[in-house]
Amino acid sequence: MSYKTLLVHLDDTPRCATRVRIAAALAALHGSHLVGLAPTGLVNLPAEVGWAVLGDLQEELRRSATQLADGFAHQAGSSGLVSFEASVLEDEPLPAVVMRARCSDLVVLGQTDPDADRPLVARDFPQQVLLQAGRPVLLVPRRGDFETPGQRVLLAWSPGRETARAVSDALPFLQRARQVHLVLIDTSRAPDGAPRHQLGWVRAWLRGHGVATEAEVIPSQTDPGLVLLAEAAKRRADLLVMGGYGHSRAAEFVFGGTTRTVLSQMDLPVLMSH
Q: Do 9 and 68 touch, CB atoms closer than 8 A?
């Protein structure tokens, strides 16, 4: 298994260049074709404003997106990539990224920055892409400098469909990693149970794919997301792999949840699947 096509979302935020650099490094490592997608966005004004004005505004959006695509092509070319594509799509960012993501193997997005002066996408843009695209999403934190992620991986296991999907989707990373640490945050009070038994099965399955792992069960009654981030920092992990939204988003919003915590407080790249 390999990532044949990587997709990176382009925008005019200061972190875009960092996101492209990481995506380009991953494309070079995995021998992937890299697509840089710059959605134009759509002018959303009443028709009474006048078609000429609307047309001029849409043309300005198109020019801005084209500049982003040109900047991506220059950065990708300067990085030595031989297979890349700069794409401008006249649509809102979410449907544009979701449509192209479904024809890709991995999507590289930026973490939402709540302090952005004029966000170009909705604050839940990464969450919506994760939920709708049907592809794994690699999220780059809004702060910090990162080398190519995937050398030291923290793999978060829980007994759910989303986690199983994430582990499978992350195999190209796991098979290249120098260290993979498999961890189960056990919030139950039972001394034993199916989730703990699954760790052995997961390790055996991963060995069949050439991935050696260490495994650990961490009993905790606190937010598993905080425990995972602390564990990642302790082990100097450069990538966290986990399932996203094993519970509904509504439940996570009301009661809190691992995905919500990690998305808001992450300080390392995170690969999520839903």
A: no
